[in-house]
Every structure is written in C-alpha cells, then in structure tokens.
Design goal:
It catalyses: adenosine(1518)/adenosine(1519) in 16S rRNA + 4 S-adenosyl-L-methionine = N(6)-dimethyladenosine(1518)/N(6)-dimethyladenosine(1519) in 16S rRNA + 4 S-adenosyl-L-homocysteine + 4 H(+). It is found in: Cytoplasm. Its EC number is 2.1.1.182. There is one protein chain. This protein is α/β, with parallel strands linked by helices. The protein folds into 2 domains: about 190 residues, Rossmann fold (3-Layer(aba) Sandwich), CATH 3.40.50; about 80 residues, Orthogonal Bundle (Helicase, Ruva Protein, domain 3). Helix content is about 35%, strand content about 15%. The chain has 11 helices and 9 strands. The protein has a 7-stranded mixed beta sheet with strand order 4-3-2-5-6-9-7, with helices on both faces. Helix 7 crosses helix 8.
Length: about 300
C-alpha cells in the first residue's frame, strides 16, 4: 500500500496565491530522491519545501540541504522539524530574490570539471506562475548547477521539452542552455488539495560546453522572440514585421530592402525562409544568430 501524507498536518490552509498543492504520495518522493541522487559534499537547493517531506528524505544523505520557503507560516514548523539536523538550513525568502552566490559555491566547485559546473543541484515543486521566471534566472544568472529536477504542470513540461515541429519560446529558453526531458508524469490525484491539472517531473542538465556570451544570448532571443510573435507565419515574414532592432543589422540607404537583407542572412545560415519558427531546432537558431551577427564570432 502506498503511503500518503495528510495535507492538514500543519493545520494551514494552502495559499492559492502561492500555487500551493502539496504532494502526498510517498513513492513519488522516493522517485524524486532517486533522480536528484544527493551525494556527500553536494549542496541541494530545494524550492518551496512546504511541510518538509522531501526535505526529510534529502536530509538522510550527507548533502547540505538549503530549503528556501516563501510562506512565513511554514517557517516555524520547518525549523522545529530540522533543528537537530546540521545539514539542513531553512531560509525564509522568495526564490526569485534568492542570491545563491551568497552560499559561496566556489567552496563546492566540482573538482572533475573546469567548465563552470558547480557542485550543487536544484529541486522543487514549482507553481505555474513561477515556472518561466525561475527557469530564466536559474539558467541565465545563477552559478551553473549539476542538475535541476522540477515538478511542473504537465502541459508546461511538454512545452519545455518540445522538439520541432512544435518548438516554442519556453523550449528554446531552456534548451539553449540545457538538455531537458520528462522523467515522470504525475496525476493530479497525488496532491492535496487536488489541482485541476496533472503534473510532470522534468530533469534539466545544463550544457557543460556552453560557448556563447551574453551578447550572443541577447541576439539569439531577440531573433526568436520576434519570430514567435507570429509563429504560424513564415519566419522571413515574422522577422520582417517584428524585428525592431534594425540599426545593428541593416544600414539605411542600402540598395536592398530590409526583407531582402533578411532573406540573404537566412540563406547564409542555410535556412529556408518559408519555414515556420516552430519548425526550427536550437542549433538552427544558433546558425541564424551567427549569420546575422558574424562579427561576434571573430571578436
């Protein structure tokens, strides 16, 4: 028989504003621990520990657990629960404002890598309203983790892991920095209160060999965002209509039109201009960016 955890143990009413739906299936917790695989000497940052059930499982390892909880009502019970476990730290903070650099990850650098991979992992049950923003800051701004395991709405997980011809901006924003795959689908009945949608666990492994600087990233997403404003249109038409940052690309007074200019760049990248944005892979978007800004490659 599968063990479950009553969601009323702390006698708190879940906050809809925080997207609180607590997981109550023991087997799913065990699966999460297996996937995150905490090791001695690692740092595990847990986003939104809630009542500390996953925290309790993770704490059995010799990893250092940093549990970041926004709901101040849960902090006293969490601190009481883990007061005797020196490897668990409970932090009351909004994860979007959390500064992981204060944890001195330089002390936890992975000795096997000289590519900027840090010896920490990230795990959490992420509400819908938080997903895109949290992914952006963790992949773009935080020290690069060894792995990320997020529980998100199933539809969001499918968007994150999409491939051509179903690519989208969320998929690009994740897969530009990392490899992502759904490792388990979890029905809504495993949560209390029961949400209206199913969930999925997504495992994200940041790319070790990431060769693009901040300027390349900016240009990459500038092109993609312009194209996906009209994702059903041909990419050439979408870029012609929506790409506003023309000054760095196109010299006014040129003998060719802006659309012809874009067409030339697309041809240089080996991309057929009649294709639709959702049909392009991450690698093809990288080729387009290099074709549009070739001077960056020799800088």
């Amino acid at each position: 028989m599968t063990k479950s955890y009553p969601h009323t143990r702390s006698n708190l009413v879940q906050k809809k504003s925080l997207g609180q739906n607590f997981l109550v299936n023991e087997k799913v917790y065990q699966f999460m621990v297996q996937e995150i695989a905490p090791q001695k000497g690692e740092v595990i940052i847990e986003v939104g520990p809630g009542e500390g059930v996953l925290t309790e499982h993770l704490a059995k390892s010799e990893a250092r657990i940093i549990a970041v909880e926004k709901d101040h009502r849960l902090i006293p019970s969490l601190k009481e629960k883990f007061k005797d476990q020196k490897n668990v730290t409970i932090t009351e903070e909004d994860i979007l404002k959390f500064d992981p650099k204060k944890l001195r990850f330089d002390l936890f650098a992975d000795p096997r890598s000289n590519l900027g991979i840090f010896n920490y992992k990230l795990v959490g049950n992420i509400p819908y309203y938080l997903t895109s923003h949290l992914l952006r800051i963790t992949l773009e701004d935080w020290p690069k983790p060894k792995s990320i395991l997020f529980m998100v709405q199933k539809e969001v997980a499918q968007r994150m892991t999409a491939k051509p011809p179903r690519m989208n901006l969320l998929a690009l924003s994740v897969q530009f920095f990392a490899k992502a795959k759904i490792v388990k689908k979890i029905s809504r009945g495993n949560f209390r209160p029961t949400p209206k949608v199913d969930s999925a666990l997504v495992k994200i492994i940041p790319k070790e060999k990431f060769a693009f600087d901040k300027l390349f990233q900016k240009n990459f997403f500038q092109l993609a965002q312009a194209a996906f404003q009209n994702k059903r249109k041909q990419i050439l038409n979408s870029l012609t209509n929506n790409l506003t940052y023309r000054a760095a690309l196109f010299v006014q007074g040129s003998p060719v039109s802006f659309k012809d200019f874009l067409n030339q760049k697309m041809a240089g990248a080996g991309i057929e201009p009649t294709r639709r944005p959702e049909s392009l892979s991450v690698e093809e978007w990288e080729r387009i960016t290099k074709a549009f800004w070739p001077e960056q490659l020799s800088a």
